[in-house]
Specification:
The chain is of the alpha+beta class. It folds into two domains: about 5-245, Beta Polymerase, domain 2 (2-Layer Sandwich); about 245-290, no CATH class. The protein is built from 15 helices and five strands. It has helices at about 5-15, 20-30, 65-70, 75-80, 100-110, 115-120, 135-145, 145-155, 165-175, 185-195, 195-210, 220-245, 245-260, 265-270, 275-285, and strands at about 35-40, 55-60, 85-90, 95-100, 125-130. A hairpin with a 2-residue loop joins strand 3 and strand 4. The N and C termini lie far apart (about 40 Å).
């Protein structure tokens, strides 16, 4: 049967974006001439008219990790705990980008994913700003098109009602509990409230197409996803202390921005960012800055 969701996803991914973000995506792909397959732009900056001073978010999709990095430890780290995250600057804009292989990007958008981090993001609006060829573009679109059905399928057994907007709200609430989050309570619901027409159209199209089978024991599955998600968040934070220059300052900036705190990083925490990041966690949990 023809898909009702795929044309909506395709149109959204091919939609207009800030020209500076598009130029940044091209420059990012150029850093990986042997491996780059697609660059996607996502996150809150999609809705901003002025990008100056903001941290843009990209996903760089590569053919494989060996082609991206060679055979060093970065390839192994990306394979074992995907994604790797790096900072990037271009023409006065700053960004962070996550690296995933085409195979991992497809897997982590689907219901078989063992964590929520990719499909929870790509169930939301994004833009495909660069692709190496038509095949790479089709693969990226197909992968992203799995994200909404995944979220809605896993949310359906946990929702009190089966209408599209309730499923979206339930799904985002559950995913926010499956990662370390700096946003204030209620942020998950505001995602849908920001553009209910978009989420209604996408949700109804996904429901019309038929969702993947929902899990038989959904509460147990969500408990596993939430436990694993928190562990992965800490592991990624530890890994980023080696791959992300100034990562601990970015962490403080993001927490302050979303949680309304005034955290300052001490010199010793910059000198030993892994230890510094770990020492922040108990205070952040106690204060409710992350959950």
């Amino acid at each position: 049967m023809p898909s009702q969701l795929l044309p909506l996803v395709t149109a959204e991914l091919n939609g207009a974006a800030d020209p500076r973000a598009a130029a940044m995506a091209g420059a990012l792909a150029a850093k990986y001439p042997r491996a780059a397959r697609a660059v996607l732009f996502y996150g809150s900056c999609l809705r901003e008219r002025n990008l100056d001073g903001l941290m843009l978010d990209f996903y760089l999709i590569v053919s494989d990790y060996a082609a991206a990095y060679g055979k060093g430890w970065l390839a192994r780290a990306n394979r074992l705990i995907p994604p790797n995250v790096f900072p990037f600057e271009h023409n006065g804009l700053i960004a962070k980008y996550a690296v995933l292989s085409e195979a991992d990007f497809a897997r982590l958008n689907g219901v078989e994913a063992d964590n929520v981090s990719v499909w929870a993001r790509f169930a939301q609006p994004s833009r495909l700003l660069w692709a190496s060829d038509d095949l790479a573009r089709r693969r990226a679109i197909t992968a992203v098109a799995q994200a909404a059905p995944t979220l809605l399928s896993l949310a359906r057994p946990m929702a009190q009602e089966a209408d599209a907007l309730t499923l979206w709200q339930t799904g985002f609430t559950l995913t926010y509990d499956a990662e370390l989050r700096a946003e204030k309570k209620g942020r998950s619901l505001s995602i849908v409230d920001a553009d209910p027409d978009r989420y209604r159209r996408f949700g109804e199209a996904a429901l019309a197409d038929g969702l993947p089978p929902s899990p038989q024991d959904a509460p147990a599955l969500w408990q596993r996803l939430q436990r694993r998600g928190k562990r992965l968040s800490v592991m990624r934070l530890a890994k980023a202390s080696f791959t992300y220059a100034g990562g601990i300052d970015y962490l403080a900036w993001k927490i302050n921005r979303h949680a309304g705190t005034k955290m300052e990083i001490r010199p010793w925490q910059r000198r030993w960012p892994l230890l510094g990041a770990v020492t922040l966690l108990p205070r952040l949990f106690r204060g409710g800055a992350i959950r």
